[in-house]
Amino acid sequence: KRGAILFFVLSEMSLINTMYQYSLTGYLEVFEFSLRKSIPDSNLERRLNNIMGTLTLNVYNYGCTGIFEKHKLLFSFNITTKLEQDRGNVAQDELDFFIKGNLSLEKSKRKKPFAWIQDQTWEDCVRLARDFSQFTTLLDDVENHEHDWKKWYDSDTPEQEEHFPMNYSERLTPFQNLMMLRCFRVDRIYLAVTQYVTKVMGDQFVTPPVIHFEAIWEQSTPVSPIIFILSPGSDPTTDLLKLAERTEFGVAKVKLLAMGQGQEKIAINLMEQAISRGHWLMLQNCHLLVKWLIELEKHLDKMSKPHPDFRLWLTTEPTPLFPIGILQRSLKVVTEPPNGLKLNLRNTYFKISGQAFHDCPHEAFPSLVFVLAFFHAVVQERRKYDKIGWNVSYDFNESDFRVCMTILDTYLKKSIANNDPKIPWGSLKYLIGEVSLVISF
């Protein structure tokens, strides 16, 4: 039953973005992998719990690999609510209210008692009190204890359960707390949902996995393409070539082709060669030739006994015209900076090899790399605020960080060579802050 619930959660993601297509065959591979990796136990009940826990986390990681950052919390929340509904902790009408609120066009006869309460807030409260027994006294409580409710309403962190007025958090379920918060402070719902998922499922369900190219390669098969769904500024080509070097596959066996008008026959010829010789073929910018992808799908269907080393890598921007057949049979990967400073730092450090810290003998290098990584994370986070964050939109990506790290390494090595104990702050600030990232400190 757990497996069926999780599969339908995955399937429903296609309603958010047409690129999020998952087949039953691909899901069964995750299911079988979870059976093998779950901790064995002689006790049947504990064994089943181990399998369900492992499967749930693996499905979360599998799904997060191929969806954009802005949809990952929604994915976690959907998993959580579906499982909570199965346990009987969340009713469907509660979920409907949380999503929609009070949709009635008729204004309630009972007028809001205070000016600080917004009209829609009061209408939502009226429906909450009318339809849910746990909130029958809500309207009277608000009216009779204005000070407590106004204090909570004005709080900087109203989502914290200890801040709820009149001990409401103690008599409500975690999801009902969300329902009440939704009425008064919808602006805090994002954080509240994160806390809810963490409380019910654990931290690992709000911490998406770091994209690891070795893991992607290990999960892939010759008959399943790997599709990189591009976000602004991302380019997996360099990472793919580095992967070929690290795995000793060889860059010479990696064939790249930027798709465009007139490239169709070349692509088919390269693919046939790659299938027979065991090469990696990357077709870039497939969204420019979406109609031709149907032809590509036919060739993939006809493919029989490909070389075990053959891999087909595709890059594309999100497009509703992308063939569903290819999407469902493929392993989808989205490469973009994660949300939040903590996850961004983790992602950056994950991509820095341990050898990089030993290559520079300067004792300040590790500390300065952290400062650089933190600065890079802040720069990327500010993009969320559009014109308030940066006047001119620019995709600060991993390449920018790598260049800055190289500058850091070069100047610190130069300091050691010149027996100069001072860190060249002026040069570093100028080259990193104003040249590499085009920012005025």
Automatic annotation (TrEMBL):
KW Amino-acid biosynthesis (keyword) present: no
Highest taxon listed in the record's lineage: Eukaryota
Bilayer-spanning residue ranges: none
GO cellular component: axoneme; dynein complex; microtubule
Keywords: ATP-binding, Cell projection, Cilium, Coiled coil, Cytoplasm, Cytoskeleton, Dynein, Microtubule, Motor protein, Nucleotide-binding
GO biological process: microtubule-based movement
Database matches in Pfam families: AAA_lid_11 (PF18198), Dynein_heavy (PF03028)
Subcellular location: Cytoplasm, Cytoskeleton, Cilium axoneme
Keyword Plastid: no
InterPro entries linked to this entry: AAA_lid_11 (IPR041658), AAA_lid_11_sf (IPR042219), DHC (IPR026983), Dynein_heavy_D6_P-loop (IPR004273), P-loop_NTPase (IPR027417)
Gene3D superfamilies: 1.10.8.1220, P-loop containing nucleotide triphosphate hydrolases (3.40.50.300), Region D6 of dynein motor (1.10.8.720)
Gene Ontology molecular functions: ATP binding; dynein intermediate chain binding; dynein light intermediate chain binding; minus-end-directed microtubule motor activity
Domain Dynein heavy chain AAA lid: 366-435
Domain Dynein heavy chain region D6 P-loop intervals: 222-334
Family, similarity comment: Belongs to the dynein heavy chain family.
Protein name per Swiss-Prot or TrEMBL: Uncharacterized protein
Organism in which the protein naturally occurs: Adineta ricciae (Rotifer)
Taxonomy of the source species: Eukaryota, Metazoa, Spiralia, Gnathifera, Rotifera
